[in-house]
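Hypothesis: this fold can be encoded by more than one sequence.
Test: take the structure tokens below, design a sequence, compare later.
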């Protein structure tokens, strides 16, 4: 599996205690990290390492995790780096839900069938998630705008199979 098949989901920041537990700062809610048992660690120095997760717990604003073979504070401190999970290992998103990572790259089309742009990332304004959409103004010139991910107001339909997101958004609102 190539690194393109992995999604960055957080960072390991060092030891928690003396028995090999590692502090984890998740990117986002940490839901996928809490539900998967195989992670890939890309340490600050050295080659990527696949780790098998024995346990994960919420701890303050982050997580703590215990990996197979990591039994001491010294080992945990050496395991600082970026954490990834293979997209194929993500749990099912649930009924009428999708993982945000699956929206990146989708075309955004309004209810009049006008192509508004392409999703580059999912952001947040604190109140709701936002689609960050990029579009070309002229050859070589691109602009970005945001659409609130508010179902039945702006978001009408997500068609993952065809990589399309249908929104109630006017072209001149960009």
């Amino acid at each position: 599996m190539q690194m393109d098949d992995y999604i960055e989901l957080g960072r390991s920041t060092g030891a928690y205690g003396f028995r090999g537990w590692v502090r984890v700062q998740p990117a986002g809610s940490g839901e996928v990290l809490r539900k998967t048992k195989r992670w890939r660690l890309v340490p600050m120095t050295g080659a990527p390492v696949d780790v098998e997760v024995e346990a994960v717990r919420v701890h303050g604003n982050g997580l703590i995790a215990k990996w197979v073979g990591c039994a001491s504070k010294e080992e945990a401190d050496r395991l600082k780096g970026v954490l990834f999970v293979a997209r194929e290992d993500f749990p099912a998103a649930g009924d009428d839900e999708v993982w945000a990572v699956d929206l990146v790259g989708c075309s955004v089309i309004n209810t009049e069938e006008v192509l508004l742009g392409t999703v580059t990332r999912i952001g947040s304004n604190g109140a709701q998630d936002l689609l960050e959409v990029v579009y070309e103004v002229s050859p070589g010139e691109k602009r970005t705008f945001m659409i609130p991910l508010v179902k039945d107001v702006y978001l009408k339909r997500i068609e993952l199979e065809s990589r399309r997101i249908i929104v109630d958004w006017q072209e001149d609102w960009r």
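The chain has a mean pLDDT of 91. The longest strand covers residues 6-16.
Hypothesis status: open.
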